[in-house]
Amino acid sequence: MSALRRRGELLSNQLQSVSGRRDELAQQLEDAEGTNRKGIEDRIAQLDARIMRIEGDIAENGRLLALAPAGMLNTPEANTSVASPAPFGLSSDQVTGITIVGTILVMFPLALAMARNLWRRGSRQVPTPPSAESTQRMERLEQAVDAIAIEVERISEGQRFVTRLLTEGSAPAVSVGQKAAEPARLPDRDSIRAARETA
Fold this sequence. Notes:
3 domains; mainly alpha; 7 helices
């Protein structure tokens, strides 16, 4: 019984395939001319004969299934062997083709992106940690720069002090033939006090 059912499914698939090819040839026949038209008509005649043979085989298979005892038709295998229809009315070959194309268009770019990321990670160079010797040299260099900055600040402070002494404490220079200025004489404190008291 299972062999007959499988044979029936195969015959149905063959019938669908041959019918599809015949329909394609019929469409081509509309545009064909001359020798091409004759060749397409011959192929359509061959496909018609094949369709007739397949339909005869399907009828024979159905007759054999009808002759089987009723107890054999209700087995659990008979209930599970019914093929589920393909989605959207597509054949199994079309579903397989769509699956393959979808996998190529979706999975292939994802695989390329992952490979590129792995390649980039592998080619990155990890910076080497600084050695103890270079760390000590950098510390000594920082200390030397700090000491130089302190010394430069001291020098500039001394320069400012000397400049201030020279500008504030020096007397104006005496030119040739000019007398030196005499210091101004202030009156005594006692005389200033006496003048205030009398006023």
